[in-house]
C-alpha cells in the first residue's frame, strides 16, 4: 500500500486577515490634504495597493490638519513604513490602521491644546480690557506721556502677570498724581491764608464808622456822669 504524504495546509491569504481600514469618528477633513507616499515595489501585491488606497485619504487629511512637531512625527512614521514596504516587507501594510490611530491621537491632542490656548487668549483679552478701562479712567489724572507709556506696556503684555504689573503701575501713577495735586492744593490754601492774615491788621486799623442812636447817646452820658460823681 502506497502511503501518500498528507498535504500541508496553506496559510490563509493576507487579505482575509487584513484589518479593516475605516475613517475614525471625528477624523478631520483637511482643506489642503497632504501628499502620502505610495509604495513603489515592482512586485507590490494587490492587497497592499488596496490597503494604501484605503488609508491614503485618511492619512492625507490627518497630515493636512496637523501642525508643527505632531505633523512631522506622523510624516516620519508614514515614510518609514513606506520605505519598509519598498524593500519587500509587504506585511508592513498591516501598520496602516495603527498609523491612522496614532494620527488621530495626535490630532485630538493638538485640538485640545488649541482649545486651551484659545481659552487662555480669551482670558488674557479680558484682563487686558480691564487694564485698558483702568488706564482710561485714570487718564485725566496722568500726564500724556505716562498714559502713552502704560498703554504700550499693556498692549505688549503677553501674560496675566505682566498685565497685573501694568495695573500696579497705573495705580501707583494715579496715587503719585493725586499726591502732587494734594500738595499743590495745600500750597494754594497756605498762600491764600497768608494773604488773608497779612491783610487783616490793616483792616483792623481802619476806624469803624458807627451811627449812634439817641438811646446810645443817653447811656453814654449817664456812664460819664456816674464816673464824674464817683471821682
In brief:
The chain has 231 residues and is mainly α. The chain has 7 helices and no strands. Helix 5 runs antiparallel to helix 6.
Helix content: over 70%
Could you give a short account of the major beta sheet? none
From the spread of the alpha carbons, the general shape counts as rod-shaped
Order of helices and strands: HHHHHHH
How is the quaternary structure best described?
A: single chain
Count of helix runs: 7
Hey, roughly how much beta strand do the residues contain? Answer: under 5%
What Rg do the Cα atoms give? 48 Å
Q: Give the overall average pLDDT.
A: 83
- Protein structure class: mainly alpha
**Measured distance between first and last alpha carbons:** 186 Å
Low-confidence stretches: 1-16
Number of strands: 0
Walkthrough of the structure:
It is a single chain. With 231 residues, the chain is an all-alpha fold. 70% of the residues lie in helices and 0% in strands. The protein is built from seven helices and no strands. The N terminus is likely disordered.
List keywords for this structure.
rod-shaped, 231 residues, single chain, mainly alpha, disordered N terminus
